[in-house]
Structure formats: C-alpha cells, structure tokens
Design brief:
Elements lengths: L5 H9 L15 H5 L16 E5 L7 H10 L10 E5 L5 H10 L6 E2 L5 H7 L3 E2 L2 H10 L1 H4 L9 E2 L2 E2 L2 E7 L1 E5 H7 L7 H12 L16 H12 L16 H15 L12 H9 L5 E4 L3 H5 L6 E3 L12 E11 L5 H14 L1 H5 L6 E2 L2 H4 L2 H4 L2 H10 L3 E2 L11 H7 L2 H11 L4 H16 L1
Parallel strand pairs: 1-2, 1-3, 11-13
Antiparallel strand pairs: 3-11, 4-11, 5-6, 7-11, 7-12, 8-9, 8-10
Helix pairs in contact: 10-11, 20-21
Length: 443
C-alpha cells in the first residue's frame, strides 16, 4: 500500500498476510451500498449477547469503516444475536488473540493470520465450519468459490474456516525497462535468464528481491521458485522433505541468477521500503511480488504489469498463494448465530470490492466478475491466469497445519533466503541446512 506505514506492511509480510493494499481515493460511501445487503428482519439478540467480530486492517484507512458498516448492517432473524465490530491491529496481534482466547474474552468470529485457524483448532478453540459449508452447498455459495480455495481449509477433523480473500505471489515486470533492453516478456525460466542478463548489462535487476528485517517477500520467492519447479517444503504425505532434486534444481537456478548479477547483491538486507524504492527508481525490472505492487510503487501509468505464469525447466507452472479466512470460535453466545453471521458476511462482502477498499484478491467468482474488480486489470489477470495454478505452503502436499505459522514466521527461511540471494553456497548444502533447522523448529 503506497500510503501505509512501513511497519504495517512489514508486519503483514512477516506473517503471510496481505501486503500491498491499494491507496483509496474517493471510495463509495458504505451506507447506500449496504442498505439492501440483508434480506433478514428483526433486531436480533440484546446488546449483552451480541457476537463479537474481530477484523484486521486489511487495507487503507477506508477499509475498516466499510467492514464495520457491513457488520452493523447485519439484521439477524428471530433470537439470533446481532454482531459488533472491533478492529485489531497487526502489532502484537498474536498476543491479543491468544490472551483473549485463553481468558474466553475473545471474538466469536474473526479474520486474522492465514494459519491462525489451524493453530487454534489444535487447541480446541475453533468451531469447525462443516455445517456452514454444507449449507453453502445447498444454497449455491460453495460453487461460487474459486477452485481449491475451500479445500485448503480442510483438516482431518473438519474445515477450520472459510476463505474470504487471497494473497498471491506472481511475476511482475516494468514494460518500459524491458522495451529499452530489447527483450520480450519471459514465458520460461530460460527466457527469464536471457532477459535478466540483457537487463544486467544496463545495470537493471531482473529478479527483484529482499530479505532484510521484516521482509518476507524473498522467502516467499524462494518457496515459489521451488513450487514452480514441482517442488516445495513437504512431500505428498505432508512430511517435511526439503532436499529434493526439483528443489535443488530451482535453487541452483536462483544461485545462477545471483552470480549473473540479475539479483541485486544488496537484496539480502533490503527491507520492504528498500525494495519498493528500487522498484520506484526503476532499478528493478522483474520480480515476484504481491497483488498490490503497482499501488505500493505508485504506478498509475500501467508500466508495471503482471506476466503470465512462467514454465519451469520441466514445464511446471505454479505460484504461491495464501488463503486468508474467516474463522469461528467455540466461545460464542450462539454457534447458530456465528454461522448465520458468517453466511451473511460472505454473501455480502462484495460491497468491499465494489467500494475498492480491499487490496486482496477475491475468493468468489461473482466478486471476481464485478466490473469494479475487472477494471483492475493486473489483479484480474492474477485471478484468470495465476489462481488456477496457485499452490499453498503445503506443496507438494495439500494439507495445511499449525506448524506453517512457525515456519513462515521463523528465521530459518529468511536465513536460507539470504544465503541463496548471496549466490555463494551450493543449493544442496543450503537446503540441507534448511531441512535441519525446520525439523528442529517443528519438533
């Protein structure tokens, strides 16, 4: 997000949350849009039994007032409770949630970290969403979800949450710099190397990255390169399996990029702000980044564009995605009330995209089809071309788990990323170290 404080953006990236919000100008007022949101009638339960909905700052200043208005427009039926809205800051949010859950003073429903529902489900604090999804199948809402998004919430005990938006990593490029270097937009890793060398000869970097304090983009890039080559951190059984031929091949490619000066040597210490500056000053020409890169950089000319998915050495096409979700808790005045509220919210959250206050990508096909969303051509391209090949952190497996929050928020991946960006250590050795560190972390 162009106008967001660096601490907000870096805090988000550290925990796999949505980074890169769109700067909002002249957003549509919430009231008129929300007037027809609910077909229910009645005022619901008394103030003392209202559902508490905790939400995060998912965008610029206009986001939370719009989400609050959407929440307060909810009119439950019969004796089901109404809902209250509370904004929870990202700073120290893990402590805020954990202490509230432990003391049973927390929310009945919340958004939050991408892996948060899995963590609290393991502690018995999450109300599974199976009944809700059964209802979604009956009323057609389930079929409105983009493929694979709901499935990512499944565990052996049930669905821990329902998705509401996507945070994706995709390849971006600055058209003017590629044109000046006389190179075409890459479609394969081999073409990426060729284009990168042409750019490097002009002092421009073709693999924009950063792995300094608070910047997890570099770590996400390393994982995405593995996934793009048919690899990942886990095997099909969900067991940690880092040192594989495909991962070694992917990381050797990254090392070659570093040695060819296609990666900025200073990237190992770049914070999010440093990285954004390099994009702004046109030192970076290509790179894997968030859906809001163009807004972060302040590009309004369309010079920054999203590539089509690149084919790896074996033809694989894939990207990394985080499924941000809405979760329900066992500590609720009414489980039926929680499910009714989440149903309402999911069915009416399109207003947030209509007001252009959500920087993330939608999980519903109907929202993706909205003219307000389609007008954002780069994001629309991410949904049409990248979402079908998107894979989550569990790849090569498919099952997410509580340990992923430890992995993504820990230092092992960042240290590994800095090693690879430096280009001095062979991939197998670096991956062996990562395997050892992650194995210790998981234990």
């Amino acid at each position: 997000m162009a106008n967001a404080p660096a601490s907000w953006r870096e805090g988000m990236s550290r925990r796999s949350f949505l980074e890169g919000a769109t700067a909002i100008a002249g957003a549509v007022a919430a009231g008129p849009l929300l007037a027809a949101c609910s077909s229910n009638s009645g005022s619901g339960g008394s103030a003392g039994t209202k559902l508490k909905f905790w939400d995060m700052p998912w965008g610029a200043a206009s986001y939370n007032p719009a989400a609050k208005a959407l929440t307060e427009a909810y009119k439950p039926t019969g004796s089901l409770p109404a809902a209250t809205y509370q904004e929870i800051q990202w700073a120290n949010f893990t402590q805020t949630f954990s202490s509230a859950v432990a003391s049973k003073t927390g929310p009945a429903v919340s958004t939050g970290g991408g892996f948060q529902a899995f963590q609290y489900a393991a502690q018995g604090a999450i109300a599974y969403a199976d009944n809700l999804l059964t209802a979604f199948k009956k009323d057609g809402t389930y079929d409105d979800y983009l493929p694979g998004t709901v499935e990512a919430m499944k565990t052996d005990k049930g669905y821990v949450a329902v998705p509401w938006q996507l945070d994706m990593r995709a390849w971006w490029y600055r058209k003017s710099l590629l044109d000046a270097a006389g190179v075409s937009v890459p479609t394969t890793w081999a073409e990426l190397m060729t284009a990168g060398k042409a750019l490097a000869s002009k002092g421009i970097y073709g693999f924009a990255s950063g792995s300094g304090t608070g910047n997890n983009i570099g770590a996400h890039q390393m994982l995405m390169m593995m996934i793009n080559n048919g690899g990942g951190l886990f095997n099909t059984s969900g067991k940690l399996d880092v040192v594989t031929p495909r991962n070694i091949e992917a990381m050797e490619f990254v090392r070659e990029l570093a040695q060819a000066k296609i990666i900025d040597p200073a990237s190992v210490s770049y914070t999010t702000d440093n990285q954004t500056t390099q994009w702004k000053t046109k030192k970076f020409a290509m790179g894997i980044d968030t859906p809001g890169l163009d807004a972060n950089v302040g590009d309004t000319s369309g010079d920054l564009q999203v590539m089509s998915p690149l084919a790896g050495p074996h033809g694989d096409k894939a990207c990394l995605v985080f499924e941000n979700n809405i979760m329900m808790y066992t500590n609720t005045p009414s489980q039926a009330g929680s499910e009714a509220f989440v149903t309402y919210y999911v069915k009416n959250m399109k207003t947030l995209w209509q007001q252009n206050v959500v920087p993330g990508l939608p999980v519903l096909k109907t929202i993706a089809a909205l003219p307000e969303f389609q007008a954002q051509k780069q994001k629309a391209k991410m949904i049409s071309e990248w979402q079908p090949v998107a894979k989550n952190y569990a790849a090569v497996g498919t099952t997410l788990s509580p340990v992923l929050a430890q992995i993504d928020g820990g230092q092992a991946l960042n240290a590994f990323t800095q090693t690879m960006l430096a280009g001095k250590t062979d991939a197998k050795t670096a991956l062996q170290t990562l395997q050892t560190q992650l194995s210790s972390l998981i234990k």
